[in-house]
Amino acid sequence: MAQHVISVTQINEYIRSLMDSDRLLNNLAIKGEISNYKLYPSGHHYFTLKDENSAIPATMFGGASKLKFKPENGMKVIALGNISVFPRDGAYQLYVSAMTVDGVGDLHAAFEQLKAKLAAEGLFDPAHKKPLPQFPGVIGIVTSSAGAAVHDMLRILRKRYPLTKAILLPVRVQGVEAPPEIAAAIRYANYYKLADLLIVGRGGGSIEDLWAFNDEIVAHAIYNSEIPVISA
Predict the structure, then answer these.
(1) Residue range 95-147, pLDDT digits in tens
(2) What distance in Å separates the CA atoms of residue 176 and residue 172, rounded to the nearest whole number?
(3) Which of 71, 160, 80, 42 is nearest to 199 (CA)?
(4) How many CB atoms sit inside 10 A of residue 203's CB?
(5) Is the pTM of this model over 0.85?
């Protein structure tokens, strides 16, 4: 009796179908350390997820998840996804749909990464800090016109130094539009020499609420400002 012969592609596709239908291999949360990390121009992430004894190749396709941090070799993460077979190579791997930093929040990790990057560029060098004017004639306030923070700032300014003139440069202070608006307001104030001092800030909140002020373009706008800036 002749044995049924199948192709390599057929067996790989069959194994993939078995793995894709196995509920235990779907919706996984796997903890491990990133190694061999590569980010391609396509936006796809390729890396190995490993622990002390084992490793598994992993792929995160561009657009599958908007990571708030930059993956790095040695970073401990929790990867969410499913395990399947890549038929072309006959190798199983973890297809990652989302990923978080293990032990600390994504935003905290992103903040530390950005802080290290900007420090290496010299943005925090004390030599670049500008002295604050003792008696500023005009203070520009870069903040939301709708929040309570601007009223608090104006009230305190009137109480502590009523001779100064305060001008408001209204911006959004939350959301994706906020960082470019904040940076543009700082550049606008400098271009037209509107103030002797700038206050850039908003009211309190969580790290998510304050995140617009941790943006790289805001940091560079402050660094390049000829007007001294107080962050509030």
Answers:
(1) 999 999 897 677 888 888 999 999 999 999 999 999 999 999 999 999 999 88
(2) 9
(3) 160
(4) 17
(5) no
